Amino acid sequence: MKRKEIQIRDPFVLPLPEEGRYYLYGSTDANIWGPGTGFDAYISNDLEDWDGPYPVFRPGADFYSDTNFWAPEVYALHDKFYMFATFRRRDNGRLGTSVLSSPGPLGPFMPHSSGPVTPEAWSSLDGSLFMDPEGQPWMIFCHEWQQVGDGEVCAMRLSSDLSEPAGEPITLFRASEAPWTTPYESPRYKETVNYVTDGPFLFRGESGHVYMLWASFIDNWYALGVARSATGGVTGPWIHQPEALYRNDGGHGMVFRTFDSKLVLTLHAPNRTPDERPLFLRIEEAEGFIQHR
Q1: Pairing of strands 170-174, 198-204
Q2: Location of site Important for catalytic activity, responsible for pKa modulation of the active site Glu and correct orientation of both the proton donor and substrate (predicted)?
Q3: Which of 87, 104, 140, 235 has its Cα between 20 and 30 A from that of 175?
């Protein structure tokens, strides 16, 4: 398949240099707003021609969710592969991020955590893994705007085996704190002022700075912004770039390095089903800022 033929939201690329192949994961249900069937993956060696789809996760009959299977991210760690993914719970109707694991990049991924690792009372989504310089794993995630109005980006320490929390959530910032965001006009939440947070992803630049990608809206168009940690640590404080990195109705991005060491951003655009497709954009770091080429 060509890139433009792949319907996917929240794309995540795992490069495996020992194979010379890129693995593409994401929200792959044809209608991700309804019942969830699982996650598929695609494989490429040039980011343009892709093999797949390969089923990498299908829920068992006793899985705690059957709706809204979102934003899988896959990491190679401890000689295994770990997937962080969002699901809507049957028991309370709230979103939460769980950890799954597999011996290989194509699964099958099986539950690793006992249900969501995000707080049970919160509606939380888009959990992402980041290892601090001491080797402590953190999950960065969103406290959903539909529950709190002004969406929050939060961080929480995880146990060394990634199976459970190792601390309480810390709020890093709220969506309205960024200079580029505007209120989201939702037909379901007309009586409140809403600011969206989606898809946080942390990465280190060549300079050693720690950056965060995260998505929100500008005049009801999906957009992607960047923040930089003033201390280099997960807890920040976080300094927002004044302008969005991408504002053409696309977002929920992540950054990876190609096999020839180029820094590449992937995101989905446009932000409407069933037209969403993965985009790959070269980016660069300059004087503490991220920009795309």
Answers
A1: unpaired
A2: 126
A3: 87
Q: How far apart are CA 28 and CA 42, in angstroms?
A: 10
- CA–CA distance, 174 with 157 (Å, rounded to integer): 19
54 and 43 Cβ atoms separated by less than 8 Å:
yes
Per run of 10 residues, the mean pLDDT along the chain (length 293 residues) is 97 98 98 94 98 97 96 96 98 97 98 97 98 96 97 98 98 98 90 94 95 98 98 97 98 97 97 97 95 86
Give the tokens for residue 229.
Answer: 């940690």
- The C-alpha atoms of residue 96 and residue 128 are separated, in whole angstroms, by 12
| C-alpha closest to that of 266 among 290, 249, 283, 284 | 283
Phi-psi region of 254 (alpha: psi -120 to 50; beta: other; left: phi over 0): beta
3-state helix, strand, coil in the chain (%, to 5): 5, 50, 45
Q: Where are the chain's structural domains? A: 3-292
pLDDT in tens, 84-97: 999 999 999 999 99
DSSP state of 20: T
The Cα 215–Cα 290 span in angstroms is 15
Residue listed under structure tokens 């300059």: 286
Read off the tokens for 192: 């409140």
The per-residue pLDDT for 23 is 98
Taking the whole predicted model, whether its pTM rises above 0.85 is answered as: yes
CA distance 125 to 122: 9
The token duo for 177 is 């704190």
